[in-house]
Amino acid sequence: MFLFLSLVFGIIASKRSSCSDIRVVDLSHVHGPEPFTAPFFPQYNFTIVNRSYSPFLGGNWFESNYIGTSEHSGTHIDAPSHFYRNRKRMHEIPLEKLYGPGVIIDIRRQVSRNVNYRVRVSDIRRWEASYGRKPKGAVVLFNSGWSSRYPDPFKVFNTQNTSDITSYQFPSYEFNAITF
């Protein structure tokens, strides 16, 4: 089974547990004719196969489309197997691991001073000093402001040559911050 996720949702929950306390935030960019695709992957393909009344379906309307896209198009999730051999692929990750209580930590100021800024444990601790301990198992998101560069690949990768991956510059994470 192949699970393709073109949308990423952050679920932000308050301390209470009723469904009315949950807010879903859609973090995805539009996925369509001009989505962002890494320069070395095939581009998005949307083809109309049929849009007509079908005699095979009793004269009822029938639409069918073909969509072809790289797994690295638009907003997406990378499975652990993307960078590590013999690790889980998307269809092996339980859905419960892809949502939960969440926090958003603003690092726009740091990124405005250093486009290669790496999120640190100190950023998380600073957030916790203001808002309290992050919930156990929380999805921790960082607002770097980088999404304003989307979908221009030259701006997203902060380079003049999108074919040279060694020239890419963008915010990321220190390993300790990922495991904190």
From TrEMBL:
<dbReference type="InterPro" id="IPR037175">
    <property type="entry name" value="KFase_sf"/>
</dbReference>
<dbReference type="Pfam" id="PF04199">
    <property type="entry name" value="Cyclase"/>
</dbReference>
<dbReference type="GO" id="GO:0019441">
    <property type="term" value="P:L-tryptophan catabolic process to kynurenine"/>
</dbReference>
<feature type="signal peptide">
    <location>
        <begin position="1"/>
        <end position="19"/>
    </location>
</feature>
<keyword id="KW-0732">Signal</keyword>
<dbReference type="InterPro" id="IPR007325">
    <property type="entry name" value="KFase/CYL"/>
</dbReference>
<protein>
    <recommendedName>
        <fullName>Arylformamidase</fullName>
    </recommendedName>
</protein>
<comment type="similarity">
    <text>Belongs to the Cyclase 1 superfamily.</text>
</comment>
<dbReference type="GO" id="GO:0004061">
    <property type="term" value="F:arylformamidase activity"/>
</dbReference>
